[in-house]
Amino acid sequence: MTLRWPWTRPTPSDSLAISLDGSTLVYAQVAAIAGGRRPLLRRCGTVPFDTARPQELAGRLRALGLPTQSVIALLQVPQCQLLQIDTPAVAPEELKAAARWRIKDLVDCHVDDLTIDVMHVGDGRTHGPKQAFVAAAPNRVIQGVASLCEAAGLQLATIDIRETAQRNLQCALAQAGTQGDRASALLMRHGEHCLLTICAHGELFYTRRFAWEGALDTTAPAAPQSLSQPIPLLDAGEMPDIVDYGAELAIEDDSAETPRIVIEVQRSLDLWERSWPGLPLHGVTVDAGESTAALAAVLARQLGQPVATLDPRPAFDGVMPACRGDTALARTVLPLLGALLRDGHRNR
Q: Measuring CA to CA, which of 12, 116, 258, 308 is 20 to 30 A from 3?
């Protein structure tokens, strides 16, 4: 089983996306898109299962009547590392091999134990640094997802990662509104982690990961690390975070009273302004579960950017009815909606 990122477009029938959170399967079923209409979320929910007997999951999924063909599996944030590197000066057919060699000192395991894929930063039309994103997932993770899907009777067609799923949702909402191809930032919580993505022209230009625990604390963060090293995201023994080029910025004098995540987001936005001066941000959108309102309020006060809370309804029909009015469930399936937004024209 190979990591294909972003992978093939779903078939014209209803599409199913899943994620595995410990012993719980989260699912979202979307009706086939026809005639330029917005996707319709038919059903979503969670299914607990015994990880020691995954075959029992097959019966539960059959009882729900969920589609089993061309299934998209969305990895959790810690299951796939996303690194940003200078694009190797090689032929396109040699890019993946060159990227594998380039990241060997940025990962905690042997590079041969990783499944990787590469995509260029941005859309290639705007002036900026020539860099690439490298998605690297342990082979055991890919094999584990594939084995569980097989045992559950699901035909796995796609494995996606959180950053590109968030990009898809973010860009669909931009196109559905008045923003169009202008640059926008989305700060979204994924369980114990938070992702910041900046997109424009339907593509991902910048991403950064944060640990959510303590994100709203007002203790100033430690001084930034060397720019040649990845910034740690996870606990010792897990995978490091994306390299944050150029992040050594001065912290304001009142940083002791500023939530840590606000300082880190401001650093990222300052870096964006320096790296992509031709793509000014349209604003920042926030989704952090029960902390959304509080985080949006403090960001609006301190960033100097328009700040809004995430509302998926302009891009998807039936979100709240499908989730039976359960706001927590709706937020859980939002990344799956992004994974289901396959444009077909993306081939990297």
A: 12
pLDDT of residue 159: 95
Domain boundary among 98, 119, 135: 135
Query: Sheet holding 307-309: strands in order across?
Result: 203-211, 193-200, 183-190, 281-287, 307-309
- Given CA atoms 192, 198, 203, 206 in this order, what sign does their dihedral have? negative
CB 183 within 8 A of CB 280: yes
- 289 and 187 co-located in one domain: yes
Structure tokens at 167: 């990009």
Question: Tokens 């020691």 map to which residue?
Answer: 52
Q: Which domain holds residue 43?
A: 15-76+142-340
Bridge-based pairing of strands 81-86 and 131-138 is antiparallel
Domain count of the chain?
2
Omega of the bond leading into 6 within 30 degrees of 0 (cis)? yes
Which among 251, 274, 142, 162 is positioned nearest to 207, based on CA atoms?
Answer: 162
pLDDT in tens, 154-211: 999 989 999 999 999 999 998 887 676 789 999 999 999 999 999 998 899 999 999 9
- Distance separating alpha carbons of residues 290 and 35, to the nearest angstrom: 36
Q: Which of 115, 135, 155 is the last residue of a domain?
A: 135
Q: Does a structural domain hold residue 164?
A: yes
Rounded Cα distance, 312 and 62, in Å: 28
Structure tokens at 250: 């001065």
Which parts of the chain sit beneath pLDDT 50? Answer: 1-2, 7-11, 220-253, 344-348
- 112's CB contacts (< 8 A; 6+ apart) are none
Alpha carbon distance 104, 245 (integer Å): 18
pTM score, whole prediction: 0.83
The answer to whether 136 and 103 are in contact (CB under 8 A) is yes
**Long-range pairs for 154-157: beta carbons < 8 A, 24 or more residues apart:** 154/16, 154/18, 154/61, 154/68, 154/71, 155/68, 155/69, 155/70, 155/71, 156/1, 156/71, 156/73, 157/7, 157/8, 157/10, 157/69, 157/70, 157/71, 157/72
Please check whether residues 267 and 292 belong to one and the same domain: yes
**Residue 106 DSSP class:** T
